[in-house]
TrEMBL record:
UniProtKB keywords: Aminoacyl-tRNA synthetase, ATP-binding, Cytoplasm, Ligase, Nucleotide-binding, Protein biosynthesis
Top-level lineage group: Bacteria
Pfam families associated with the record: HGTP_anticodon, tRNA-synt_2b, tRNA_edit
Family: Belongs to the class-II aminoacyl-tRNA synthetase family. ProS type 1 subfamily.
Protein name in UniProt: Proline--tRNA ligase
Subunit text: Homodimer.
SUPFAM superfamilies the record matches: Class II aaRS ABD-related, Class II aaRS and biotin synthetases, YbaK/ProRS associated domain
PROSITE patterns membership: AA_TRNA_LIGASE_II
UniProt organism field: Paenibacillus oceani
Coiled-coil parts of chain: none
GO cellular component entries: cytosol
Domain Aminoacyl-transfer RNA synthetases class-II family profile stretches: 38-476
UniProt region (Disordered), positions on chain: 241-268
């Protein structure tokens, strides 16, 4: 294709809202443009990368025996009520109503949609196992859409669903998707870990996340260099939304707590240690990490936050009355500071926040975490150094150096981006939705289900995050928008132009994807754009055109080589 006719609006300067390399380079290279917060257009080059990633996904899913279909994005509320998630899913579900006032949701995920389809269409064990997948736009009203394609409110997901007659069948389907995911991420050039994960609001038992390693990732992975154990710290931090609600409701109604939840404290709380605090609030120690320490009006304040909800409000209030600690919501803190809630991050315990040997929590230095503004924020906090994971996988608060639950070697902590997630759902959806098949004795049984998601658009950003340098993206060949960037150094030079046109035809005839930069721009501008776009091989037709020699440079190398045009196709291959 010719650059003169292609929409590739490259930008010299970083967009002001871009905090990550993938975001700034994807905007600057003219791959994506934002329409609303978390809502993006894919411009021609970005769309080519997306299609390459989709092709890899389709090939691996098909090879694993899954078949593609396409489900609706518009879901009647009745469907989500059948599974109970109309009420459970919360504000992330985009809801709307039609002209008759009937309620709908935009698909955030498709367990209900697929379960209802298979319930109606698959009646016999003879059809099983069956795995169906789709590539489709999902809608989630994320509280903090950010980092470009990494966390969108409209994003592309590949979601697959397996249906089996037995547990063992589900194990096999799960394994096969797990292997397909490994193949997909390898082919996309992603450095990742498959980690034990939390099943969140989708539910289920066995679950793994595929996490692309990256310093900007929102997930923290504890892994063992010795035996390969790896888990998402979220696993330890999570409290299912239902549990949180039930606890709050119980506290509000004055009913007694479940005695299994931890040591019982009296009405006047004597809360001085982390253990006492977490037991009192019926949360896990991990959630203390989701706290914020700051100085407000000269007084140290600790706010426990999970999402934008205060934990167990009644208890928190009672605690406040009886202690010197002030609890605030993330939103309150942000308002006080005149800052964005997104700037308030996890507090780390260590050099900045000190904890006495008895885990006394009130001795922290007053500071705010997250935005790293001098004199206002707690800076330089790092997982691993400032907090740790204990042997049960719980995140806790003392010295670093906790041990792997399998082999007792020290655990390492890394940041990563969740690019894929596989779950064994079992009968979590088939039972409430009465999706059954007849087994070989003619008895109805609920399907054993699994679900498997890849954030396709997020994967693009994760690739760019792992593959870039200071000049732009360095696409792995498997997903690059073009294979060769053919540049005419001076498009006013007839010899150069003629040779470039000839090579352009030759390469295309050889089946090579070529982007021809035939614009009337200075060579320097073309080279800078070329680095920004990150096409794997740059071929420049310049001063030696008359001799039939061109310059070839791989995007990831710094050195260029001179190649005779007769050898060019062979060199490129
Ligand atoms: P996260 O923890 O990042 O919010 P999730 O656990 O809510 O993700 P899943 O429900 O497991 O996401 O969805 C499957 C995949 O879809 C995720 O592994 C991720 O790659 C992708 N994904 C989820 N939310 C988004 C989003 N807002 N924007 C882009 N991709 C997303
Ligand atoms: Mg999410
Ligand atoms: Mg997640
Ligand atoms: Mg997930």
């Amino acid at each position: 294709m010719r650059q003169t006719h292609l929409l590739i609006p490259t930008l010299r300067d970083d967009p002001s809202d871009a905090e990550t390399n993938s975001h700034r380079f994807m905007v600057r290279a003219g791959l994506i443009r934002q329409m609303a917060a978390g809502v993006y257009s894919y411009l021609p080059l970005g769309y080519r990368v997306l299609r390459n990633v989709e092709r890899i996904i389709r090939e691996e899913m098909d090879a694993a025996g899954a078949t593609e279909l396409l489900l609706p994005a518009l879901h009647p509320s009745e469907l989500w009520k059948e599974s109970g998630r109309w009420d459970q899913y919360g504000d992330e579900l985009m809801r709307l109503s039609d002209r008759q006032g009937r309620a709908f949701a935009l698909g955030a995920t498709h367990e209900e949609a697929i379960t209802s389809l298979v319930r109606d269409e698959v009646k016999s064990y003879k059809k099983l196992p069956m795995t169906l997948y789709q590539l489709q736009t999902k809608f989630r009203d994320e509280r903090r859409p950010r980092y470009g394609l990494l966390r969108g409110r409209e994003f592309l997901m590949k979601d697959a669903y397996s249906f089996d007659a037995t547990d063992e069948g589900l194990d096999r389907s799960y394994r096969s998707m797990y292997d397909a995911y490994s193949a997909i991420f390898n082919r996309c050039g992603i450095r990742y870990l498959a980690v034990e994960a939390d099943s969140g609001s989708i539910g289920g038992t066995d679950t793994h996340e595929f996490v692309a390693l990256s310093g900007i990732g929102e997930d923290t992975i504890a892994h063992c260099g010795e035996c390969g154990y790896a888990a998402n710290v979220e696993l330890a931090q999570s409290v299912p939304p239902d549990a949180e609600r039930t606890t709050a409701a119980r506290a509000d109604s004055g009913q007694p707590e479940n005695p299994a939840a931890g040591p019982q404290l009296t009405d006047t709380p004597d809360v001085r240690t982390i253990a006492q605090l977490t037991a009192y609030l019926s949360i896990r120690p991990a959630q203390i990490i989701k706290s914020v320490a700051l100085l407000v009006d000269g007084k140290p304040v600790v706010a426990l936050v999970r999402g934008d909800r205060e934990l167990n409000e009644t208890k928190v209030k009672r605690l406040l009355e009886a202690s010197s600690v002030t609890m605030m919501s993330e939103a309150d803190i942000a308002a006080k500071l005149g800052s964005h809630p997104g700037y308030i991050g996890p507090v780390g315990l260590g050099p900045d926040v000190t904890i006495a040997a008895d885990e006394q929590i009130l001795s922290m230095t007053a500071a705010v975490v997250g935005a790293n503004e001098p004199d206002r924020h707690l800076t330089g906090v790092a997982p691993g150094r400032d907090f740790r994971i204990d042997a049960s996988g719980d995140l806790c608060t003392a010295v670093p150096g906790d041990l792997c639950p399998n082999c007792r070697k020290p655990l390492l902590l890394d940041k990563g981006i969740e690019v894929g997630h596989v779950f064994k759902l079992g009968t979590k959806y088939s039972e409430p939705m009465r999706a059954t098949f007849l087994d070989d004795t003619g008895k109805p049984r609920p399907f054993q289900m699994g679900c498997y998601g890849i954030g396709v658009s997020r994967l693009l950003a994760a690739i760019a995050e792992q593959h870039h340098d200071e000049a732009g993206i360095v696409w792995p060949s498997s997903v690059a928008p073009f294979h060769v960037h053919l540049i005419v150094a001076s498009s006013r030079d007839d010899t150069q132009t003629a040779l470039a046109e000839k090579l352009y035809d030759e390469l295309r005839r050889a089946g090579i994807d070529v982007l021809l930069d035939d614009r009337d721009e200075r060579a320097g501008v073309k080279f800078a754009d070329s680095d920004l776009l990150g096409i794997p091989i740059r071929v420049t037709v310049g001063k030696r055109a008359a001799e039939g020699v061109v310059e070839c440079k791989r995007r990831r190398d710094s050195e260029a080589v001179q190649v005779e045009t007769g050898n060019l196709t062979a060199y490129i291959r």
